[in-house]
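# step 3/5: fold
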Amino acid sequence: MLNSFLLVTPSGSVFEPSVAKKLAQIIFACQTKIRLSTATIRSGHLSTVDNALEILNLFSEERPSIGLSEVARLISRDKASTLRYLNSLETMGYIEQDPFTRSYHLGPTLARLALIREITYPVNRAARSILKKLVADTGETAHLSHFSGESLSNIAIEETSYRGTRVFIDPAEPMTLHATASGLSYLSQCPKDRLAALLGLKREAHTPDTPMTKQQLDALIATARQRGYAESIGTFEVDICGIAAPVFGPSGEVCGAVAVAAPVSRMTEPIRRRIAPYVIEASRQISKHYGAKRLPEQETSQ
């Protein structure tokens, strides 16, 4: 290609072939160097962004502030590079430095962005969108509940329009932990001390099939923990079947559950097996919107 390369001056005259070839080689070398430099800059820029985001992810409820040395250790960088990342984040308001302790904590820019997100796309709206998709995927009523006191309270309900017969869920009625799929899925992810305390509560027999003994509940909770979801068939209301998966909050601990409810007559075992993955995926998506670092796992065993 260089042999056929021609260079023309502004006046229209043509360079001698040997000169033209030499100039073409210089131009080609310069273009190659520019491309390599641009790629290096882009790579370095992405690396800087990745490191900055990695630093932001170090903050948590357990670690609200952190010093330079600890940041450098946790991200495996030298102090000079780490300080540059911290200075950039501080300049943009993503973090602030305490003037007395010299440690860093999250800054006002994150609060502003969080407020904008909540105004423009609130968590409850996001959760409802996920519930609507769950209804579309399963054809059954879906609901989201949060733990409150000694039971679960519904915070969002989406009824199905695909069925003539559907389950009515009373938003004001608490869901007991031992008798509902939502409750069992919540219990399956509780820390041991909280689980022991909750299993020690007085239990009500809602139907003849409500599990009442600790042995029964231990078995149901173990199954839910292994599968990643829980089932309840006629244990809260005689003719209602539920399938639920746990939902996690920003701290990484379980905070509630998402579930599908349908008449027992429709929920054959093949149908329940088909619906379960949709419920688990909905729980994962809602947990993500809650900012959870821990997500529900897909079913590992039946």
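# step 4/5: annotate
Residues 17-56 form the longest helix (40 residues).
# step 5/5: archive (pending)
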